[in-house]
Amino acid sequence: MKTQSIWLRSAVLLACLTGVVWPLYGQTARKPISVGAYYYDGWGGKNPKADDPNEPWARTAPRQVTKRMLNEFADREPVWGWRNDSQAIMERQIDLAADNGIEFFLFCWYWRDANGSFNPEKVASLPQHESMQRYLKAKNKNRIKFGLLIANHQGAEIVGTENWQKATEHWMQYFNDPQYVKVDSKPLVVVFNAKGIENADLVGMQEVAQKSGLTGLTIAGCGNTAGKNFTVTTHYNVVPGYSAGSQEHAYSELADAQRSKWQGSAQQPYIPTVIVGWDKRPWEDASGNGKGGAKQGWYYTGRTPEQFKKFLNDAVSWMDAHPEQTPKERMVLIYAWNELGEGGYLVPTKADPTGSYLKVVREVASEQRK
Description:
Layout: H1 2-18, E1 34-39, H2 67-72, H3 87-99, E2 104-109, H4 120-125, H5 130-137, E3 145-150, H6 161-175, E4 182-183, E5 186-191, H7 199-211, E6 218-222, E7 232-234, E8 247-250, H8 251-259, E9 273-275, E10 298-301, H9 305-321, E11 331-335, E12 338-339, E13 344-345, H10 356-368
Parallel strand pairs: 1-2, 1-11, 2-3, 3-5, 5-6, 6-7, 8-10, 9-11
Antiparallel strand pairs: 4-5, 12-13
């Protein structure tokens, strides 16, 4: 015992002098996870039917709320109400996220004009960017970081290397913010719809960043990234049966679909995604023909906080088992903070006022820091 005590004191002294942390008694140090959540800004502004006298429900409803949400899915209403377009509610969300293990939001960012040239005035006026602007003004902003999910899809497509470069020039104002989230010491940019960007565009983005004084960007491709030279890959969500007709499926199937995509390489690491849920019936057209709403698709039921906790822990275990396939930051991306119309949300609601799924994130994150 005396010899062991002398050895232990010597090891501690050596660690202090060299800055090296040595595992003791066969234990290995493990870096805690870093949890981010996708943030969707659809819960403010004016509803498209607000001026329709036949739709009185819409007069005070935010943009993305539908009649089906109010009538059939009222339990999804957040504890602060359907609207989140105030500075006070943004600051409340920042505290809620930080208190429960969320380290950063990835805000959706939209290009204008779609398939055309950059229109900075229109971009600045988009209501879809208001939540991020409130975050940037928040007095408690330093509690969590932020990043961009480039919503490169219908209505917001960026086409051509020149436009991707102009977009990157515009994003530099965010990349230089000390709260911007980084991977490998470079700003993380997640690109939705990886098929909508070419390798030349990726090169152009890196060139702009480097000319602006950065060492580069960590560009993450979402979805089908085959043949694309992204720095890392990930997903927004993985949803079997998106428009295959209304069918009820188990949440366990949805979780398995995400797990099947957890694979990367040393050359192109993968950031695992965990989905809280999926049920977009509030946004669907009841007839199923897609007129006036999304086409009907599979929806997933039966989720529990216990299932979600296992799912999140599985993502951690995958990173433990495959450290060479994921960034050293050990990130997990959660779909989503507030995709209330699609059924993927962590925010506390009327049906879940204590935020049981959000508490799961805190539990798992806390366990990782022990």
